[in-house]
Amino acid sequence: MFVTSHFVSCLVSLKYLTCLDLFSLNISDEMLSSIAMQGFLLTRWFSLQNCTGFSYAGIFCLLSKCEHIQLLDLQNIVFLNHKHVVELSSFLGDLVSINLNHCSILTESAFFSLKSSKSLMDFVAYPQLKHLRLAQNPWLSDEDIIMFASIFPNLQLLDLSNCCRIFDEGITQVLRICCNIRYLNLSGCSIVKLLEMNFKVPKLEVLNLSYTKVDDETLYKISKSCCGLENCTQLRMISLDGCHKVNGNVVASMVSSRLSLRKIIAPIRFCLTDKDKKYFLLHGCLVC
């Protein structure tokens, strides 16, 4: 969708704008510069997710003038590289949440190589960073995500979906450090099995294990061990979609043993009858 000059004129007239979502718009550097020059109080949320038509110069101009943004969404900004991120980091000291999903040309050096005061490590090295989205980033390894956990231990949301180099060891260490995790997305992490998840994750609410190597043995250990899902007392939703090694019979066991569950996305081998659906709903859980 293209942005008209009338839209830009109306936008820059909003002197007290604190949030701006430009999702999937075709914008320009001139538009971003115009917004920057108006001295907006963009302090809460700024999203360029899936936007086109602009360059790094536009982002730099805007963020350099709006240095107190808390939630920044740069998903699918395909030209964004590690040098850009390092440079932008000096403007983002108040950041609470960042979305770098599908920024596939980012490298580890965007986070760890540069030790100067302008490295990304510096701006995320604060306990206030709660949300981190890194889906579809092929460079991520166990070493990287363990380092992330050490830098911001108060993470509540972590999206690592389709990060194909992540193993059980990395996830286990992250969960041991980040005990406030509420939302964990491991969908498409095709080598993750979570056999070592035998510790407390007391605040976990959403666990997406779709298209992982999780099997019956994994779920049995998680749900039956004294330190597995029994201690995930807040767990509301779990997704097992595409988990071909999970037997459908595990669904009923999970509903009865984990009373906090409100939704289960069942494995492909599970056949849901109307009778089953009513039974699960009586337990307060939607199975689909």
Instruction: Report strand order across the widest sheet.
Output: 1-2-3-4-5-6-7-8-9-10-11
| Outline type | elongated
Q: What is the end-to-end distance?
A: 34 Å
- Number of individual domains: 1
Low-pLDDT parts are 113-124
Structural class: alpha/beta
Pfam family, one: LRR_6
InterPro entries: Leu-rich_rpt, Leu-rich_rpt_Cys-con_subtyp, LRR_dom_sf
Protein name: F-box/LRR protein
GO cellular component, one term: cytoplasm
Identify the notable features of this structure and list them briefly.
288 residues, alpha/beta, Leucine-rich repeat, LRR (right-handed beta-alpha superhelix), 11-stranded parallel β-sheet, 10 helices, elongated, Leu-rich_rpt, LRR_dom_sf, F-box/LRR protein, Leu-rich_rpt_Cys-con_subtyp
Description:
The chain is of the alpha/beta class. The protein has an 11-stranded parallel sheet. The protein has one domain (5-287): Leucine-rich repeat, LRR (right-handed beta-alpha superhelix), CATH 3.80.10.10. Helices cover 30% and strands 11% of the residues. It has 10 helices and 11 strands. It comes from Medicago truncatula. This is F-box/LRR protein. Pfam families: LRR_6.
What's the topology here?
Blueprint: H1 5-12, E1 19-21, H2 29-37, E2 45-47, H3 56-65, E3 71-73, H4 82-88, E4 97-99, H5 120-124, E5 131-133, H6 142-151, E6 157-159, H7 168-177, E7 183-185, E8 206-208, H8 216-224, E9 237-239, H9 250-257, E10 263-265, H10 274-282, E11 286-287
Parallel strand pairs: 1-2, 2-3, 3-4, 4-5, 5-6, 6-7, 7-8, 8-9, 9-10, 10-11
Helix pairs in contact: 2-3, 6-7
Protein name: F-box/LRR protein
InterPro entries: Leu-rich_rpt, Leu-rich_rpt_Cys-con_subtyp, LRR_dom_sf
